Amino acid sequence: MHNSIRSGDESLEDEDQGRPPSLLSDDQLKAMVEADPCQTVEEQAQRFSIDGSTISRHLNAIGRVKKLDKWIPHELTAGQMLKRHDTCVVKAAQSQA
Questions:
Q1: Residue (of 24, 19, 20) closest to 53 by Cα position
Q2: Does residue 13 sit in helix, strand or coil?
Q3: What is the C-alpha to C-alpha distance for residues 59 and 30, in angstroms, rounded to an integer?
Q4: Per-residue DSSP letters for 36-78?
Q5: What residues of the chain score a pLDDT lower than 50?
């Protein structure tokens, strides 16, 4: 018999199990990347003793992308923003037609 039933809890509602607390904060990683933007995911993972996929998730969450062996903020140039705007205008016009 399941422990919750033994204790008298006969509810069929799912309990929120949640995600375990992260061993790494975005602020810690951001500070480390700003101090040395040339570190690899593997080096960062070893430093914090966590999996590389966790580092990658956090880097994505703080908006960092790897370019030319450096982690940099992902920012669009004026030309890229204009191209995206133009594409949206064309798509909006097509959907209204």
A1: 24
A2: coil
A3: 8
A4: -TT--HHHHHHHHTS-HHHHHHHHHHTTEEEETTEEEE----H
A5: 1
As its CATH architecture, domain 23-92 has Orthogonal Bundle (1.10)
Residue 19, classed as helix, strand or coil, is coil
Instruction: To the nearest 10°, report the CA torsion of 48, 51, 54, 60.
Output: 90
Q: Strand, helix or coil at 2?
A: coil
**23-48: pLDDT as tens digits:** 788 888 888 888 888 888 888 889 88
Helices (H) and strands (E) in the chain, counts: 5, 2
For residue 64, give every residue at least 6 positions away whose Cβ sits within 8 Å of its Cβ, in sequence order, or none. 30, 33, 71, 72, 73, 74
Question: 3-class DSSP state for residue 24?
Answer: coil
Which tokens sit at 52?
């590389």
